[in-house]
Amino acid sequence: MARVYNFGAGPATLPLEVLERAREELLDYAGRGMSLLEMSHRSPEYTEVHERTRGLVRRLLGLGDDFQVLLLGGGATLQFAMVPLNLLGPERGCDFTITGAWSRKAHTDAARLGRVRVVYDGRDDDYHQLPDPAALDIDPSAAYLYLTSNETIGGLQWWQLPDSGAVPIVCDMSSDIMSRQLPAERFGLIFAGAQKNLGPAGVTLVLIRGDVLERCRQDLPAYLSYRSHAAKGSLYNTPPVFAVYLMGLVLEWIERQGGVAAMERLAGLKSAILYGVIDTHPEFYRCPVAPPCRSRMNVVFRLPDEDLERRFMEQAQAEGLVGLKGHRSVGGLRASIYNAMPPEGVEELARFMEEFVRRQG
Ligand SMILES: *Cc1c(COP(=O)(O)O)cnc(C)c1O
Q: Do 116 and 162 have their domain in common?
């Protein structure tokens, strides 16, 4: 078996030992003579998986008891609607930062559902930098301040959080959750689709602080209400059981590696290798993102022309380095180096990049 290094942005590479374990357990889970895929979500086996996974999330992120851990369907995209549905109201608007493609989509949905004030929009410089957090003018009566901690397409990451006072921060952490240590108590609600840093597609992690949950609307259809999910320990309806199981295996893997602190250290090392190559050859590689906002998860770069970019991708692919095409909306190249990307994969890519410059394509 020849596994490639997959730099795709998501669904993304998973730790090999997680896949092997899932394969071992696929046909017969815990000696039950059936697969977890075929088992009731109320069975003792799944209950154990569900609670172990939620416990791991708490432990790895250092969440206090005041946070609810929800495992929902619908992707991060459903959260673009659920957050405003639950938290906005006739007298309650929110403040938004638009820092790239994902926050722009979230803003479009929120603006359909309530009053949204944009406190930053990076459109004028094509979303190549982030605002100075101290310069944001946040309305103290806003229901929340919305941030996207890592813009997966543009390759930008917030390194300093705004001080929003009593206004809860709602954060889309889909592409950098558990890749760095963050003070959980600074956030009122965090959500993340699993398929980048936490597992397969199909489950979305939602962390909601008690005081924010208290303020959620009570008149929503059941699935759309955080209250229904929280009241039932995230078993209001059938959860995405297999995705939760795989996420649990990934979280155990993260814990074995040394937890979020270890992931953060690795992300620093891996990203420094790639930005190092890019910055050593400014006449050939160019990262459009302002250095202080560069992402440690999605390294975005351009070559002198699109023909070279195409050849770069083809030749990289032939060497087992795949998924390097930038998002279709921005073009160029993008190396996504989430938690499960081993440092060896990044070193291979760096070696290939050096070689590609030497022979100029
Ligand atoms: C991938 C991604 C999304 C969309 O996730 P889906 O699970 O496809 O809905 C939203 N926000 C960010 C930051 C992402 O990286």
A: yes
Beta carbon of 193 within 6 Å of any ligand 1 atom? yes
76 ligand 1 Cβ < 6 A: yes
Distance of alpha carbon 145 from the chain centroid:
18
The domain containing residue 90 runs over which residues?
Answer: 16-256
- Counting every residue, how long is the chain? 361
Helix (H) or strand (E) holding 69: strand 67-72
pLDDT at 177: 98
Confidence of residue 361 (pLDDT cuts 50, 70, 90): confident
Active site residues: 102, 172, 196
- Is residue 10 domain-resident? no
Q: Which of the listed residues 71, 79, 102, 108 should we mutate to test ligand 1's pocket, taking the one with most ligand atoms within 8 A of CB?
A: 102
Distance 202 CA to ligand 1 centre (A): 12
Q: Could you give phi then psi for residue 267, rounded to 5 degrees? A: -60, -40
Query: For the chain, how many structural domains are there in total?
Result: 2
pLDDT in tens, 43-97: 999 999 999 999 999 999 999 999 999 999 999 999 999 999 999 999 899 999 9
